[in-house]
Structure formats: structure tokens, C-alpha cells
């Protein structure tokens, strides 16, 4: 059994980790922290977990108890893992961070987008970006994993086959992305209220969103050169889900894009390339650790439209984090993650 600790167990990604790990045959959650709910039984806060975590209660973060775990997940706001990851690594505990603390390779770039100095630049070199479809071999050897963000997961998986094959004009890529409201976290905020978000939809952060440098970093690696990317996120009236509509211009019209995508993801357990002409729905991945993709070439011209959907809390966060755990500990990558999406 892999002994698991979770720092920040009361947010949406924390409770989603608990839900997924409840079905995991080889991982056991032994520590879960919350400063505000310390002492409260997990199932008293989250009744969906009644019967799964008897005896497990929230506790204040403590390096001694966390350091006794094999692996610790951080499901915390940005900056928290900076402060604690180093001590845990020194104690021999592996770290899987769901926040953005170790996603960007450049500490100055991180400081610019996250509005505070990077708290652990000395750890950046060894941090592995936890997108298994790209970095599976590095994840196997890692001590510190940065789980990709939700928009970056859907967007990179949609663009990768085109960029790796050198088939897209990299100067003009467009990612038009929609997110459900749970992407904003569980914290109380006027912008997340039901009356503010239902029956309405809006774009935000058009001038620049903090996921832009993360997506650009991944696409640059795939293309082997700088990319010009326009990324526009939208808030939509659903709870879970990301829908990315991606646009690129192909430089060679003769290539069979459907075959290219199918081949790229043929051995990936959590990427589903749909038949030509399909329109993936976010509800088809709700609760599932799946990125479902369809590739289109309208009017057979040189424009490619890729549709990519995920559940922001699963393949976009906690599911991907568990997938990383499985790879890291040499387990079957699908453990705890094989359930289908919930439809309707
Ligand atoms: N929501 C989503 O779809 C996605 C979220 N993420 C990222 O995952 C992380 C978690 O997000 P989310 O689940 O929404 O929850 P929150 O960002 O709301 O995090 C809340 C948790 O962190 C704990 N926490 C807060 N401050 C500290 C601190 N200084 N030290 C220790 N614990 C702290 C809180 O408990 P307490 O204050 O009681 O200690 C609580 O359990 C964030 O970085 C988010 O950006 C990533 C991908 C998708
Ligand atoms: C709808 C919504 O507000 N989404 C969040 C992004 C999701 C998230 O949690 O960001 P990380 O993946 O970097 O942690 C936002 O735009 O700030």
C-alpha cells in the first residue's frame, strides 16, 4: 500500500482526490490537512465519503506526519507547496503538486504571472511536468511532480499531434476555451455565485491568463520552437468541464489528420480520439479521467479545428494527479481511474 498524505483536503480538488483514492486498491490516505477544519471527520464534511474513510479526520499540516507518507499531494492555493515541498523531499517523501508552483521552468516568469516571488527556485530543475502523454519516462524517476493546469491539459493534448509532426503554422495558434465554475475553486467569491454564473457566459482574462505561459511552454517543447498563441478562457454555466476549441493552419493538406491523431494516442489509456466528424461533449467525461478529442478540417481547407474536452477536476487536476502516482510507484496507470463518465 502506498501511504498518501493530502495537504489542503477541503477544496474541490482535495475532495476529488479522496473520491478517486477511495476506489484505489493500492493507495491509502493516512493524513489529510485543513487548518480551518482540524479535528473534523472527513465524512462529516463530505457525506459522499461516508463509509469510505472511517476514522480519518482533518489535521493541521505537520511535516512529521506528512514526512512519514510515501507521497504527499498538495491541493492548495499557489505558494503553499513552495514552502513545504523541500522539507518533504528531504524526508524522503515524494510530492505531487496540483497547484502551479512548479509548472513553469522559469522562476521570474512564475513571479510575473502569479504576483509573488517564486518561493523555491532551487527545486525547479528537478520538478517534472506531470503530463503523462509527454513525460511518462521522467515521471517514473521523479521526486517532485507539477500536475498541469486544467486549460493547459485540454489545450496541449489537442495541439500536440499537429505540433510534434511539424504540421501547423506555429505563428498563429488559437485556443478558445470554456470552463465550468468549479474551476474557480470552492472559495466564496461573488463571481462564482449561482446568480452570477447561471444563464450567462463570458470571456475573461483576454489580455493574459496565467495559463498562457504554461500552455506556451508545453507547445514550444512539442514544436521545437517558439509559438504564437492566442488563449481566451470563458466561464460557462456548468459545474465541471473544459471544452477547448483549437484552431491552426496546416502546412501540408495531404496529411490524414484523423490517422495522425489516432496513431499519436493509440497507446494512451486516457486519451480518446473520436471518429472523424464527432463533437465531444463535456458531459461524456464528467467524473472520468479522460481527454476526448475530435479533429476536423472544415471544407477540407487548410484550417484545422480540434475539439478537446476534459473534466477540470479529474483529467484537469485530481485524476491526472492519481495517474502520476500510479506511474511514479510502478503501478498499473489505470488503477482507481477506470470508471466511465456520467451521462447525462
Ligand atoms: N478547481 C480546479 O478545477 C482546479 C484547481 N487546481 C489547483 O488546485 C489547487 C487547489 O484548488 P481547490 O481545490 O480549488 O482549492 P483551494 O484553492 O480553495 O484550496 C483550499 C485548500 O487549501 C488549504 N490551504 C489554504 N491555504 C493553506 C496554507 N497556507 N497552508 C496549508 N493549507 C492551505 C485549505 O484548507 P485550510 O485553509 O483549512 O488549511 C483548503 O483545504 C489550487 O492551486 C488550484 O489552482 C488545478 C487544476 C484545476
Ligand atoms: C473557471 C476558473 O476560474 N478557472 C480558473 C483556472 C483553474 C485553476 O484552478 O487554475 P490552475 O490549474 O492553475 O490551478 C481561472 O481561470 O483562474
From TrEMBL:
Q: Which PROSITE patterns match?
A: ARGC
E.C. number, please? 1.2.1.38
In alphabetical order, the GO MF annotations are: N-acetyl-gamma-glutamyl-phosphate reductase activity
Q: Which residues form the active site?
A: 150
The record's section on InterPro entries has: AGPR (IPR050085), AGPR_AS (IPR023013), AGPR_dimerisation_dom (IPR058924), AGPR_type-1 (IPR000706), NAD(P)-bd_dom_sf (IPR036291), Semialdehyde_DH_NAD-bd (IPR000534)
Its UniProt pathway annotation is: Amino-acid biosynthesis; L-arginine biosynthesis; N(2)-acetyl-L-ornithine from L-glutamate: step 3/4
SMART domains membership: Semialdhyde_dh
Record's signal peptide: none
Work out whether the entry's keyword set contains Amino-acid biosynthesis: yes
Where's the Semialdehyde dehydrogenase NAD-binding domain?
3-142
The UniProt entry, under NCBIfam families, shows: argC (TIGR01850)
Q: Which family does it belong to?
A: Belongs to the NAGSA dehydrogenase family. Type 1 subfamily.
Under the heading HAMAP family, the entry gives:
ArgC_type1
- Please describe what this protein does: Catalyzes the NADPH-dependent reduction of N-acetyl-5-glutamyl phosphate to yield N-acetyl-L-glutamate 5-semialdehyde.
Name the record gives this protein: N-acetyl-gamma-glutamyl-phosphate reductase
Species annotation? Pseudomonas migulae
Its lineage reads: Bacteria, Pseudomonadati, Pseudomonadota, Gammaproteobacteria, Pseudomonadales
Amino acid at each position: 500500500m502506498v501511504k498518501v498524505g493530502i495537504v489542503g483536503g477541503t477544496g474541490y480538488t482535495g475532495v476529488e482526490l479522496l473520491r478517486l483514492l477511495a476506489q484505489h486498491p493500492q493507495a491509502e490516505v493516512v493524513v489529510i490537512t485543513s487548518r480551518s477544519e482540524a479535528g473534523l471527520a472527513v465524512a462529516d464534511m463530505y457525506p459522499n465519503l461516508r463509509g469510505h474513510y472511517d476514522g480519518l479526520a482533518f489535521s493541521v499540516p505537520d511535516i512529521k506526519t506528512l514526512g512519514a507518507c510515501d507521497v504527499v499531494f498538495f491541493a492548495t492555493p499557489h505558494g503553499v507547496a513552495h514552502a513545504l515541498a523541500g522539507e518533504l523531499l528531504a524526508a524522503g517523501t515524494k510530492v505531487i503538486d496540483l497547484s502551479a508552483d512548479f509548472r513553469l521552468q522559469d522562476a521570474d516568469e512564475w513571479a510575473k504571472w502569479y504576483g509573488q516571488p517564486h518561493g523555491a527556485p532551487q527545486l525547479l530543475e528537478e520538478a517534472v511536468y506531470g503530463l503523462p502523454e509527454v513525460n511518462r519516462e521522467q515521471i517514473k524517476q521523479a521526486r517532485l511532480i507539477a500536475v498541469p493546469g486544467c486549460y493547459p491539459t485540454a489545450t496541449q493534448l489537442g495541439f500536440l499531434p499537429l505540433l510534434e509532426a511539424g504540421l501547423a503554422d506555429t505563428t498563429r495558434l488559437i485556443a478558445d476555451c470554456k470552463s465550468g465554475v468549479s474551476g474557480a475553486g470552492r472559495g466564496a467569491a461573488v463571481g462564482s455565485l449561482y446568480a452570477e454564473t447561471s444563464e450567462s457566459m463570458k470571456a475573461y482574462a483576454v489580455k493574459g491568463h496565467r495559463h498562457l505561459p504554461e500552455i506556451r511552454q508545453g507547445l514550444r517543447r512539442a514544436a521545437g520552437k517558439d509559438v504564437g498563441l492566442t488563449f481566451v478562457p470563458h466561464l460557462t454555466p456548468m459545474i465541471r468541464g473544459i471544452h477547448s476549441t483549437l484552431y491552426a493552419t496546416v502546412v501540408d493538406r495531404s496529411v490524414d489528420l484523423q490517422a495522425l491523431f489516432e496513431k499519436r494516442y493509440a497507446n494512451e489509456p486516457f486519451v480518446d480520439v473520436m471518429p472523424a466528424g464527432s463533437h465531444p461533449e463535456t458531459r461524456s467525461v464528467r467524473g472520468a479521467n479522460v481527454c476526448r478529442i475530435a479533429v476536423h478540417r472544415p471544407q477540407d481547407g487548410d484550417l484545422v479545428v480540434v475539439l478537446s474536452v476534459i473534466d477540470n477536476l479529474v483529467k484537469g487536476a485530481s485524476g491526472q494527479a492519481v495517474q502520476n502516482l500510479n506511474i511514479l510507484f510502478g503501478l498499473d496507470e489505470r488503477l482507481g481511474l477506470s470508471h466511465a463518465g456520467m451521462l447525462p
